[in-house]
Specification:
- It is a single chain.
- The protein is of the alpha+beta class.
- The protein folds into 4 domains: about 130 residues, Globins (Globin-like); about 100 residues, PAS domain (Beta-Lactamase, 2-Layer Sandwich); about 80 residues; about 150 residues, Histidine kinase-like ATPase, C-terminal domain (Heat Shock Protein 90, 2-Layer Sandwich), CATH 3.30.565.10.
- The chain contains 16 helices and 12 strands.
- It has a 5-stranded antiparallel beta sheet with strand order 2-1-5-4-3, sandwiched between helices.
- It is elongated.
- The protein starts with a helix and ends in a 5-residue tail after the last strand.
């Protein structure tokens, strides 16, 4: 199929899924919008993007952005919400391109899609920011007029001004002589303080140490020369000690006859994380291609070596230590084959073959695979199943693979006499079935927990670091989530959540 055919054939399904994710995954504001309105805006965005991908024609997307910018600003949306909404198109189309295109056509389509998404988000951000700036300039001009009036008029005008600024979704502040003299509620919330804790405090107390010298230099240059950049990115400091990427747009104003800095403070944590994920995806794709090629090159000679070793083991003249050495070689080849399988699973895109299954039966099948291995180490496996679970639409083989990987991980770290407990339950609050796998092993350090699902991360001497990574990929592909927690006393608990309202 060519790109035009793909975009036409998948149009309705992509639009439907896009609307569904806007209603469920992006934000509360999107979930409250009427379905009909989202269908109109998403259809227009899809068609405009199609013109860019097929004809390099940006005229339709420009018109769409002009229209949606005013609509979303009027609707009280934040910049990051709409950026995330546009990013959904790339999330939906990339798997479709990977499945239906190959070689140069795939590369060209992905480049066009990335360029289109970047252009759309950048264009919208600039328009959105420009409208914000117009409002702020108007507010600043009003402020300069207000401070020149009598005390009673000043108080009345300042009250109106504060009301206007409080309606802005991003943080707004005024810094005079290095002190915050005004801040709206959004600015205070971004830093975790009440307004009484913000007014009168030095501005640098809200800046992370890593960015302090940089921001101070900009502030001094702005006040003294008026030539510093108006837009800059830094790390703000939250009351709880956290540091978060932030974008500031500032202007010099006059307040009570003296210079001050008025600015919009915008959280860009989601945008930075999105950019990081895009870079990570691109890197993993590159590693995947190398891994696939390497695995295939190794597997063929490895199979030949294994076959010849098996032939040698049947030789009656080979016994004693020599036979034991051949067994060691065979075991090591088997371990290498397992590593190659994990590498290929990592590189291969996940395609699901969904069917209606009973998760308790899937768990039983998974236990059968590793039962002998567990008995050899004297490990007991206890089951506690919920008998009223709904049927799930899953890829049975892949879910079994994920469960087996988690069980094998526990078996590897448990000593003789260890225990594994498996529990299934229904989580009514969010429409999921939960599968908990607990062990009483040595546990995992808290510093390591955030990284155990990262590719190639392993605490095992002979581990590849791909087993748990592939578990997460499989569960994510099913629209679920997998998390790990320290056990109540010792060991760990893996919790797998799978949606039971997923359509076949």
């Amino acid at each position: 199929m060519n790109l035009k055919s793909i975009l036409e054939e998948w149009r309705e399904r992509v639009i439907d899924e896009w609307v569904r994710r806007l209603k469920t995954n992006v934000s509360e504001r999107y979930s409250q919008r009427p379905f009909e309105e989202l269908m109109i805006t998403v259809s227009a965005a899809y068609d405009a993007s199609t013109y860019v991908l097929l004809f390099n024609d940006y005229s339709k997307i420009d018109c769409h952005i002009e229209w949606i910018t005013r609509a979303r600003l009027h609707g009280g949306f934040t910049l990051s919400e709409v950026q995330n909404a546009y990013e959904l198109l790339r999330e939906l189309l990339v798997p479709i391109f990977l499945e239906n295109l190959k070689g140069g056509e795939l590369k060209e389509a992905l480049l066009k899609l990335n360029a289109c998404t970047f252009y759309t988000i950048t264009k919208f951000s600039n328009n959105f920011q420009s409208l914000h700036e117009s409002k702020i300039k108007e507010h600043a001009l009003n402020l300069e007029r207000m401070v020149e009036k009598r005390t009673r008029e000043l108080a009345e005008s300042e009250s109106k001004y504060r009301t206007l600024v409080e309606d802005i979704n991003d943080g707004y502040f005024v810094n005079q002589d290095g002190v915050i003299v005004f801040a709206n509620r959004a600015y205070c919330d971004m830093h975790g303080y009440d307004i009484s804790e913000v007014i009168g405090r030095p501005y640098y107390e809200f800046i992370a140490d890593e960015s302090l010298d940089f921001v101070r230099a900009l502030y001094n240059e702005r006040i003294e020369k008026g030539e510093a950049p108006e837009l800059y990115v830094y790390l703000r400091k939250h009351k709880n000690g956290g540091c978060f990427p932030t974008e500031n747009k500032v202007k010099i104003i006059t307040l009570n006859g003296r210079k001050a800095v008025a600015g919009i403070c915008r959280d860009i944590t989601e945008r930075v994380e999105m950019e990081r994920k895009i870079r990570e995806t691109e890197n993993l794709a590159h590693i995947g291609r190398i891994t696939t090629s390497l695995a295939h090159e190794i597997r063929n000679p490895l199979s030949s070596v294994k076959l010849n070793i098996q032939i040698l083991k049947k030789n009656p003249y080979i016994d004693g230590n020599d036979k034991r050495r051949l067994e060691i070689v065979t075991n090591e080849i088997t371990r290498l084959e397992k590593i190659l399988t994990e590498m290929l699973d990592f590189a291969r895109p996940i395609r699901l073959n969904l069917e209606e299954v009973d998760i308790n039966e899937v768990v039983d099948s998974s236990i059968e695979v590793i039962e002998v291995r567990a008995k050899e180490k004297g490990i007991s496996i206890m089951k506690k199943y919920c008998s009223t679970l709904p049927s799930l639409y899953l890829d049975r083989d892949k879910i079994e693979q994920a469960i087996i990987n988690v069980l094998v991980n526990s078996i590897d770290v448990l000593g003789r006499g260890g225990k594994i407990k498996i529990v299934t339950r229904k989580v009514r609050s969010n429409g999921h079935v939960a599968l908990d796998i607990c062990d009483n092993g040595p546990g995992i350090d808290k510093d390591v927990l955030p990284f155990i699902f990262d590719p190639f991360f392993s605490n095992k001497k002979k581990g590849t670091g791909l087993g748990l990574f592939n578990v997460k990929r499989i569960i994510d592909a099913h629209g679920g989530k997998v998390e790990v927690y320290p056990g109540k006393r010792k060991g760990v608990r893996f919790s797998i959540l799978l949606p039971f309202d997923r359509l076949k």
